[in-house]
Amino acid sequence: MFRRLGLHTRAPYHVFLYSLIFGATTFHSFILSPIAFKLLKREDFGNLQNKIFPGYFIAQTISPVLLGLTAPYTVCPFGIGVLATSAVAGALNYFVLLPWCHSIKEERVKLQKELGADAEPTEELVNLNKKFGRAHALSSIANMVSIFTLAIYGTYLTRSLNKV
């Protein structure tokens, strides 16, 4: 397909895609989010993340698949496994953990409105906060798995490109 388009090698496109997804995920996770968390009010930070996360997790899901399809070399089972793990982590975040976190946040907001702004936290609210903490922790782990597997793939990529 690439040759028909006049593109004789997939390597530049593959490396660009890898750089884009690895750079975006690491920048968001380790620079942008911590800064936004410190500077924004909790509600504003949550709104920002709600806008970013769907696209972010879709990118974490689709990019490893595209990397596998555009590899300028034959991807061995190890490389496929690393990319598949990364894609599964992104899909888990998008299809399972993101909706779970969102539903908990909606429950929490509804309960906080019922209780009023100055009310003491109820046992139900404390339990919702703990439930959100678990969901968020699982999402963070899945995110780190995606980033870590992409880093492993980057090492594999540089070794493989040396052979091309």
UniProtKB/TrEMBL annotation:
Residues 17-109 form the TMEM205-like domain. It is found in: Membrane. Coiled coil: none annotated. It comes from the Eukaryota. The chain crosses the membrane at residues 15-40, 52-72, 78-101, 137-156. Pfam families: DUF4149 (PF13664). Its main location: membrane. Keywords: Membrane, Transmembrane, Transmembrane helix. This is TMEM205-like domain-containing protein. The keyword Membrane applies.
